[in-house]
Amino acid sequence: MRKSGAMKFLVGGRELELTQSRVVETMNGQEPEIVREYFVELPCGWFPPKQIMAAVTEWERSSFTSHEAIRVLSRLGLVCRRADELHSEVEPHDKKSVQSIDGFEDDRLREISTTIKVLQAAVAGLADRLSKLEGLE
Question: Which of 55-69, 82-96, 117-131 has the least mean pLDDT?
Answer without folding.
Answer: 82-96
